[in-house]
Write a structure and sequence with these properties.
Layout: H1 3-10, E1 14-18, H2 22-33, E2 38-42, H3 45-55, E3 59-63, H4 71-79, E4 86-91, H5 96-104, E5 109-112, H6 117-135, E6 136-140, E7 143-146, E8 151-154, E9 157-160, H7 163-174, E10 179-181, H8 182-190, H9 197-211, E11 216-219, E12 223-226
Length: 230
């Protein structure tokens, strides 16, 4: 990934940086602030957890040695409910136990202090690649869905989905292989608003035209089943 590509990707991401060393925190915050959409920085896990809950950043950079709850404990707390947010851990020393824990928690990178700009660049590049790969879902027969762009990808062509079409497709992806009844789809997508079966069928028809695969199976009078193609 070249420098400009990195800048273009990072400017869409938010970062939470938790480090109790003020000098280090200020330096790295200033460096990352040149590239990312927004960086939130603080000095403790307690503050960091509150920011995480409110802001839901894309990437976390956590120091291991934090007052109170350690960076590893913080990462464990996040992983109980969130498997996707990318987490980087920084530490002043190597430790085999921590490294094994990093693997267990599916951390993106384990950074040894002092951290160079090149190492930060490499670590966030890897985090960006991981986010990107999670945001692209293969539908089969050469079609993919980009959650980030809410669009269908085919042969380097991008087919944009309307907001409601994207919501419906993502709903079916979350319930792949299940028979989704009209009533469940109505409640899941439209909430308290009433939506007729004909209107739902029309939305599904529009999505089918854009992905041109037989992913949707019509269950007569009941609803639909969605299955990605091999």
């Amino acid at each position: 990934m070249n420098h400009q590509t990195f800048i273009n990707k990072m400017k869409t991401y938010t970062i939470l940086y938790v480090e109790d060393d003020q000098i280090v925190r200020e330096y790295i915050t200033e460096f990352l602030n040149r590239y990312c959409k927004k960086i939130y920085d603080c000095k403790s896990s307690e503050e960091g957890l509150e920011i995480y809950k409110e802001k839901r950043p894309n990437i976390l950079l956590l120091d291991i040695n934090l007052p109170g709850r350690s960076g590893i404990d913080f990462a464990e707390q996040i992983r109980k409910q969130d498997k996707k947010t990318r987490i980087l851990i920084s530490t002043a020393y190597t430790n085999q136990e921590f490294m094994l824990k990093a693997i267990e928690l599916n951390l993106t990178r384990y950074l040894i202090k002092p951290i160079t700009n090149e190492e930060l660049f490499s670590a966030f590049e890897k985090a960006s690649d991981e986010i990107e790969s999670e945001n692209i879902i293969y539908l089969g027969e050469g079609y993919s869905y980009s959650k980030k762009e809410t669009s269908i990808l085919k042969d380097n062509q991008q087919i944009l989905l309307r907001k409601k079409e994207a919501e419906i497709l993502e709903f079916f992806l979350e319930h792949e292989g299940e028979v989704v009844r009209y009533s469940i789809l109505e409640n899941g997508i439209w909430g308290n608003s009433t939506m007729t079966k004909d209107a739902i069928r029309s939305q599904i028809h529009n999505i089918r035209k854009k992905i041109s695969t037989n992913c949707f199976e019509n269950i007569t009078g009941v609803g639909y089943r969605f299955q990605k193609k091999q």
